[in-house]
Every structure is written in C-alpha cells, then in structure tokens.
Amino acid sequence: MKNTFPGYYRPTEDELSEMWENCLFVLDANVLLNLYRYSPETREELLGILEGISDRLWVPHQAALEYHRNRLGVIKQQAVAYDSVQKLLSDSRKKLENDLRSLTGKGRHPFVDADHLLERITIVFTEIEEEMKGLSQEHPDLIDEDPIRDAITALLEGKIGSPYPSERIGEIYKAGKTRYESKIPPGYQDAAKGNTRQYSDLVLWFQIIDQAKAAKGPIILVIDDRKDDWWLRFKGQTIGPRPELINEIVSEAGVSFYMYSADPFMEHAREYLERQISQQAIEEVRDVRQRDEEYSRAVHLARAALLPYETLEAMRAATRLPHEALEAMRAATQLPYEALEAMRAATQLPYEALEAMRAAAQLPYEALEAMRQVEEEAKESDEEADE
Description:
By secondary structure, this protein is mostly helical. The chain has 16 helices and 6 strands.
C-alpha cells in the first residue's frame, strides 16, 4: 500500500532522520524574503542553520527570480509600517481626546477633570510617538546597501538552478492550463492572477523535479507559501505536503520528498542537525507565518464577498491596525457601518455577523457560505491548537 500510495503516508522517524542526513534542501523565495521581516537575532539564527547545511542547499531559478522581483516591495512594507503606526497613534489620540471631552467636559461631571486626564494622555502618546520616530530613523535603508541580500548572495553562490529555455516554459504553460482545470497541485490557486504569473509555482515545481532527477537523492523543500495547493489540511490542521506532490516526484524522479514551513524546519533542525536554536526565534518565525495565514483567510473572505482588490492591503493590516483597516475598507467598499463591524474581525467572524454582513452588503448567499466555511475552518484550527 505505502509503495503504491506514498503521498498518503507520513515518513517515519527513521525515514525522516535518513532524509535529513542525505537530502538536498530546497528553498523557496518566500523563505528568503521573510528574512527581511524577522528581527536581526532571529534572522541570524535561521541564516546560521542554512550556513550549516550550505553544501546541500539549492534554490530553483524561479525562486531566485521571485526573490529579486519582490525584494524591494518587502523592504517598502517594513519601512511604511512606521508611518502606519504613527497615523494610528495620531487618530487614536484625537478620538480619545474628543470622546473624553464629550463625556467629562465642563458641567458634565463634578469629579473628573478632563484637562488633567488629557495632560497625562498627551505625555504617554508623545513618548510613544517619539520612540516610533527614533525606531524609524534607525531602520536601515536597504535600497542601495543591503546586508541581508549580501548574506543571501554569499550563502547561495553556485547553488542557483538554471532557467528553462522559452520552449520548455511554453510547454509548462500549456500543461498548467490542463492541470489547473483539474485542480492538480501546485499553483492552481494562482489562476486568478491571469497571464503567465499564474504559472510561477508550476515552473518552480518542475524545476524541483528536474533537480531531484539529477541529484538522485531525497528532497526537503522549505517553503512559506501557505496555499492549499501545496499543503494537505484536515479540519484546519496542516497534515503535510499534498499527496499529489509526493506521488508525482516519486513517480518522476524516484526519490522521497517532504516539506516544511520555516518554523517547523527550525524545530526539526534542533534534532536532526543537532543545533542550538532559541525558542524565541522559532516563535517569532511562527508568528510571521500565522499572520500570513490570517491574511490568506482575509483574502479568501474578500474574494467570497466580491470585494475590490484595493481592500486587500487594508485587510492585511487588520490584525495590527484594525481602525485604519476599517476606515480604508469603508472607503473602498462603501458598505454601511453595520457590515464593516462584521468584517472587522476578518478571520474569526461569527455566523450571525456574516448573516448581518450579507444582508447589509446585499451579498449573494453563495458568498455567505464561502465565508462561513472560512470561519469554521479558523475556529477548528484554533480549537485544535488549544488542545
């Protein structure tokens, strides 16, 4: 059974141990890009692990290309975060001052001195704002001088795959159309992107298969892409790689295959590579991944509700900047306030809120069902995590 259906069986501890000892470690672009989103300490921890296995590292040409294409965008996201926080602080301060004066202004309360409270509030907000300005000024300018890119370049020298010729790319695009129609992973969830960008993951996958044929050894892919066309999930829990992926690489290259996100990769490196890795670093990497998963759920929700693309960036910040996200979503969608309150929680909406949102925004019932499914999956995932 296991030899016939290898994708449906998780490797045993002995098999995993052998894989870690002999495999080729393949990195996806998002693992490299996320290095810009970690603290310097956590980034050094992960780079240290990769340096320890540098003789067995390999990056597909497509992954390296996507890293270079998206590097400046990731750098910009980190830089503008300071401005977003400053705006949130300013808006919150103004709202608090207005509400406080409205509730405790002259003649409204005999014992509460609004001016005294506002003075104390001003001191606190000013201290925080000054701290944020200092952090913003200390944030490195990575546009011209980028030590992170320098470290990645040195680490991966001679370890980047070759690009496909145009004829091979055309064949993959043609195969991708058929595969996506049949929901064969990976990449079919990118079909909405249109044009050739939708086939990026499929090009990456075929490059991995070709490298597996050449290496003639096991492959461990470290990837922070969280879409369901890479991962098998059941009741909100990630089981492992999609069985179709394992079956295909075993069939085509005759090698074993497994996948990790960055945080479980770091956890298992403790055991299999016998490295000292701080739990704090692992938890930070996990936090980044979980925020990305929340964003993915929000995107799913937005697509189900037929919201315009402009709202997605606001929803991405929803867990950190709920008020700004709410206002941006209001402007983009022109939905009534009742609907916005239902959307505020983004990934953990109760069913009653979805029903209210559907009625307020006049969404079709199919959109409600899709959103309810997202909410149930998120709830099941949270319950299993608590267990």
